[in-house]
Write a structure and sequence with these properties.
single chain, alpha+beta, two-stranded antiparallel sheet, globular
């Protein structure tokens, strides 16, 4: 398992620049959320492709979306309507560890722990 390669492949499923101009700030259970149908559409396309590649690809595509969603929300608040697909590595790792603690990810959590012991670097 080469998570560095999987990360790179998952990231490449998103365009270099992401248009969030259709976005809107919304109220959600956590406070102020953000919604961009264009961005969600890009995620859905990436997710469909990732599903055919395996669980790690699918998970990484989701976590990249989570990370970029935070970036999109913050950019939109500053009247910036295009973001790059560059992800904050610390945020990605935080989301990865949170997602791996969810039910159904026990085997992947174990595999990730072994991967971290041997290599630690996924970027």
């Amino acid at each position: 398992m080469n998570l560095k390669k999987i990360f790179r492949e998952a990231l490449e499923l998103y365009p270099t620049f992401i248009d969030i101009s259709d976005g809107e700030l919304i109220l959600d259970v956590e406070g102020q959320g953000f919604m961009s149908r264009k961005f969600v559409g890009l995620y859905e396309i990436a997710e469909d492709i990732a599903k055919s590649k395996g669980d790690w690809h699918e998970l990484f595509v989701w976590i990249i979306f989570q990370t970029l969603h935070e970036k999109a929300k913050n950019s939109f608040k500053q009247n910036i309507f295009t973001i790059t697909r560059e992800v904050d590595q610390n945020m990605f790792m935080n989301f990865l560890k949170l997602n791996l603690k969810e039910d159904g990810y026990e085997n992947m959590l174990r595999d990730f722990a072994e991967y971290e012991k041997s290599t630690k670097d996924i970027f």
